[in-house]
Design brief:
Length: 327
């Protein structure tokens, strides 16, 4: 635990730092409100602050107000005000400003230690709560098997990037990826082996993308890739590069290493295209890739009616399975 002490009185500053050192508590000192605020704005700033009410530059209550006005994703700072004020109305004003506790000068050292221990405990609980909330958000937006975004999250990302592409008049490419003959993979390796293949392909997809691209599990053995700034030609090039990297990879399973291939449907967003139309065209391209022999990337023209792909996706080619066991 690190405590920020903001105190302009040299006497109180010396007294408090001696107590903190004696108790084994690390601290940072600020002689005025401006120094204190600079410390609080730094990365990994102290989350427990001992603030004098009256400070040059920015007083203790104003520091509390600024802290409480920060975005909710900022770490919570537990604030204890040191003051010579004793009126109840003034104490209420301090709490209303965002103070968590206060201590009246002159104070009993043991009472100060007790207040600091309470503050540290609350900060610890808040950190655990923030961690739990983060875990819940990750669970709600990520696929548990592959670790990629789930269908809802990747579609939300696509919607956001499609709106940005329209606003900035920039291209946007999407790739719909389907693992070839995945039923045969499950029949041969079992569902656990199929899971290993999906996880391996998911890692390969993630490793092939830029920081600002997006990829998610679209459903079953399908994945959706969103590529901001990529026109159709660039999206096709990147799709083929990713496809080739997958087909040349070995995926380790409990029954040994295997290879697998994927088929891809590619589409680039039109100037005023809807997300539904864009995904239908990507789906139509994927259907063409499947009909064309798999392990390939195809695109459908803007006027393609992808309803054909959903209604005519019947029996696939009967050629041999596109995965093999490694040696």
């Amino acid at each position: 635990m690190i405590v920020l002490l903001a105190e302009d009185s040299a006497v109180y500053r010396q007294l408090i730092t001696e107590h903190l050192s004696e108790w084994g508590i690390r601290f940072i000192c600020a002689r005025n409100g401006l120094e204190a605020w600079k410390v609080l704005e730094t990365t990994n700033a102290p989350q427990l602050a001992l603030l004098d009410w009256v400070l040059p530059g920015i007083d203790g209550t104003e520091l509390c107000r600024r802290l409480r006005a920060r975005p909710e994703n900022e770490p919570y700072v537990y604030c204890i005000l040191l003051t010579a004020k004793t009126k109840k109305q003034e104490m209420l004003e301090a709490m209303d400003a965002g103070a968590d506790d206060f201590l009246t000068k002159p104070f009993d050292p043991l009472e100060l230690k007790a207040r600091l221990l309470v503050g540290a405990r609350i900060v610890g609980l808040q950190q655990k709560l923030a961690s739990a909330n983060h875990a819940l958000k990750v669970a709600a937006s990520h696929d548990f098997l592959t670790g990629l975004w789930n269908r809802s999250a990747i579609v939300t990302f696509l919607q956001r990037e499609l709106s940005r592409a329209r606003r900035d008049a920039r291209p946007l490419g999407v790739i719909l990826v389907d693992v070839d003959h995945f039923k045969a993979v499950n029949d041969t390796l079992g569902h656990e082996g199929g899971d290993y293949v999906l996880q391996g392909i998911a890692k390969q997809l993630s490793a092939s993308l830029r920081d600002y691209d997006g990829v998610g599990r679209y459903g079953g053995e399908e994945f959706l890739i969103v590529m901001p700034g990529c026109d159709l030609l660039k999206t096709i090039q990147r799709a083929n590069s990713i496809r080739e990297s997958i087909s040349s990879s070995q995926f380790l399973t409990t029954l040994g290493s295997v290879t697998a291939t994927v088929s891809m449907g590619v589409a680039a967003a039109g100037p005023a295209e809807s997300i539904e139309s864009l995904l239908r065209r990507a789906d139509a391209g994927l259907y063409q890739a499947k009909r064309g022999g798999r392990d390939r990337a195809e695109h459908a023209p803007p006027e393609a009616d992808a309803r054909n792909s959903t209604t005519t996706r019947g029996p696939q080619s009967s050629r041999s399975c596109d995965f093999t066991f490694g040696r």
